[in-house]
Input
Amino acid sequence: MLEQRKTALKKALTDSDAQVRDAAATALDQLEALDNLPQLLAQLTGQDRRKRVAAAHALGRVQSTRVFIPLIEALRSDDPDLRAAVARILGEKRHPKTLSPLVKALSDPEPGVVTEIATALGNFQDPRLPKVLSSLLNREEQIALAAIDSLGKLGFPEGEQALLGAMQDKRPQLRRQAALALAKLQTDG
Output
């Protein structure tokens, strides 16, 4: 079955329409990542830091539920760059089974990783997230900004009180972001 897909996509690489050719190339890239799944999984846990991060990005292109457990496990890696990349990838994939591990990973000691997780959470339409994101507003500025952006992106009215509180923060960047996020919240009327 996979071979039939590849054959059709390879043929589409010579299509008369440039957008069809581009789509076929992108699709082939995704299928090749699936073909290389065992190697990518080995690289994800290997010793070479660059290869681990590259493997995580390649796994992000794979359309298979088999990538979630290894990516979730990578959230516990010793490498903060890998943890941040994985958080971004899981946020892009938006699979419900990854939400809980992302929330648990908010205890990460690296602010850059927590920032990526806060940003990733904005991709999940879960009504529990305003409370989770609100708890990040007293953290480092980059984390608080990511949480505010995600609160606005989610648009849940439950984020309003936290955003109103951020409007009183001593940091002007937070006040500015909170103002923009408030306009994105859903209203009844």
